[in-house]
Structures are given as C-alpha cells and as structure tokens.
Design brief:
single chain; mainly alpha; globular
C-alpha cells in the first residue's frame, strides 16, 4: 500500500512526475531568457538606462504583488529586519543588486546596439568564469578535465581578441558580473522570490529618481511614446520575474547536472536570433572562437561522467564535494 501511494494511476511515480515538471519549467526559463532580446528590440528606441530603470522598478512592484498573493510578505519583512541587524549580509545583498543591475544594463545596451552574438558568448563562458571564481574565493579545486575546458574557452576568447584587435568586453563583462553575482548569492542563501525582491528593492530608489528626472527633463519615453512602448516598459517587470520563477520551480525538482545541460539553451537561442533574425555578422574567426568555447563547454559538461568512470578507490585530482 505504501508503494502504491507513490505511484500514479498510469504507473508513473510522483518523483518522476516532479522531475518531468521540473524539466519543463527549467526549459521554459532558459528559453525565455534566450528569447529576451526580441523583447528589448521592441523598445530599442528607448535608452538602455531608461529601460533598466523601468525593469528594476516594475520588477520590484511585480514581486511585492506576488509576495502578497503567495502570502509571503511576512517572510519579506522578517528577512528585511535580519539584513538590517546583520551588516555583512546587507553588504552582500547590496553587492548582488549592483552586480545584476550592471549585468542587465550591459545586456540591454548590447542587444539594442547590434551585439547580440557577443552577448551570447558572455553566457556561454559564464559557467567557466564561475569555476575560476570558485577557485579564487571558495578554495575549490579543478579536475584535469575542467582545466582543459577552461583553457579551451580561454583560447576561444583569445582568438576573437586577436582577430578583431580588441577584447570582447561585452562578453567578458556579462560573464564576470553574472559570475560575481552568483558568488554573492551563494553566501546570502535567499530563494528566487525573496532574492529578486530584495535585489530590486535596493536599487529601486535610484531607478525611481532617474525616471522622475527623465520625466522632468522631457527625455523620458514613458508616457511620451506610442502606447505600446509604455505598456512594454511596464512589462519589463514581468519578463524579468517570470523566467526566474520558472527556474526556481525547475531547480527544486531536477538535478544540478540537468540544470547544467539546460543552461546552454539560453545563449544558443540568443546566438541564433542574432545571426538569423537580426542579421548580425558571424565570421569564420567568430566560428573558430565559438568552436573552442563550445568544445570547452562540452568537456566541462561531460567531466562529471568521466570522473565517475574512475574506480571508487581512485579519487581524481581536485574533486570537491559541492552542496
């Protein structure tokens, strides 16, 4: 009877159903992130700073409404009091909010100024940047396969730098800001809903002041452009929060390994959009550069399975137990 309680009428266990649902939510999240350039392109006549300010402000409003709907406003205020009484944690949440705001600004500017392909590179190399940050700040160790993966990705960035005579600063900025953002989040330990609420809360006053100033100067697009533009600016809060909520639901029910594979959906869709829909150039040098990065990511993705093939008595160099 106990076994039957965990099996549905179609013979599928509840755990399997949760895993399938989690996979769907994760794919939805990464797909929405990958398609987000299409949204920014709809309002590319608005400055990146104004789009960012609206994104922060409306995301905060949306998250407060969501907390009320979920009955979690009490959790928010308890955490708020905790941060006020623990300055170190307050500094971390401020750092996280600044980092993600810079990341959003660079991404919006890149998309609306014809750099979608390079922005996709940033999110391809982000997992490998996170590895480097783990080594530097968390004393984590690399396996030999991860070293190979990191060197391949570094070679890819180096090739593009040599070919175009300049560092791909957009890709590196996106990877570094998101990598450091992830590092701070590791210490804060907030769920996705409360995390985004606090991160937008910290910078909402700055965003609000900027929006008021833009209105007073007569440079604001909000309310002075076609109605669709105004509606889309308000909608930036929803398109910011929705994929994050999908991701949180997915991450609860599937393994980190599966999340690791799904995360490449986003930059792949972004790259495809840049090349096909928005006709950005993708030269042979870029193809070679991306190929090194893709190969590095392939090695990185299969490295856990390579490690498992070693006998239990042979602990590979640099193995580290992650939470």
């Amino acid at each position: 009877m106990a076994d039957k309680a965990h099996v549905t009428d179609r013979g599928v266990s509840r755990a399997e159903k949760r895993q399938r649902a989690g996979a769907v939510y994760a794919v939805l999240a990464y797909s929405l992130w990958g398609l987000l350039p299409m949204y920014w392109k709809l309002i590319d006549q608005v400055s990146a700073f104004e789009i960012l300010a609206h994104r922060i402000f409306w995301a905060f409003i949306f998250m407060i409404i969501l907390l009320i709907f979920l009955g979690r406003l009490g959790d928010f205020f308890r955490r708020f009091r905790f941060f006020l009484s623990h300055p170190a944690n307050l500094v971390l949440i401020v750092a996280a909010s600044i980092l993600i705001s810079i990341n959003w600004l660079v991404y919006i500017w890149a998309v609306n100024n014809g750099h979608i392909v390079e922005s996709s590179m940033g999110y391809y190399i982000n997992p490998l940047v996170s590895i480097l940050l783990g080594i530097l700040f968390l004393k984590e160790k690399l396996t030999p396969w991860q070293i190979v993966a990191f060197l391949l990705a570094t070679a890819g960035v180096f090739i593009q730098t040599i070919e175009f005579g300049q560092v791909p600063w957009i890709a590196i900025s996106l990877a570094l800001t998101f990598g450091f953002y992830g590092l701070t989040k590791k210490f804060i330990r907030l769920d996705a809903v409360l995390g985004l609420t606090f991160e937008t809360l910290i910078v909402t006053p700055i965003a609000f002041v900027y929006l008021i100033y833009a209105q007073m100067q007569g440079t604001a697009a909000f309310g002075h452009s076609p109605t669709l533009t105004t509606v889309l600016l308000i909608g930036t809060g929803v398109v910011t929060a929705l994929p994050l909520l999908f991701f949180a639901e997915g991450a609860r029910n599937i393994s980190l390994t599966m999340i690791g594979f799904f995360q490449y959906i986003s930059p792949t869709l972004t790259l495809i959009l840049g090349v096909t829909l928005y006709k950005e150039s993708f030269s042979q040098a870029q193809l070679i550069s991306f190929s090194f990065i893709w190969l590095g990511l392939l090695v990185f993705s299969v490295s856990p399975f390579m490690k498992r093939r070693l006998s239990p008595g042979r602990r590979p160099f640099g193995t580290h137990q992650h939470e």
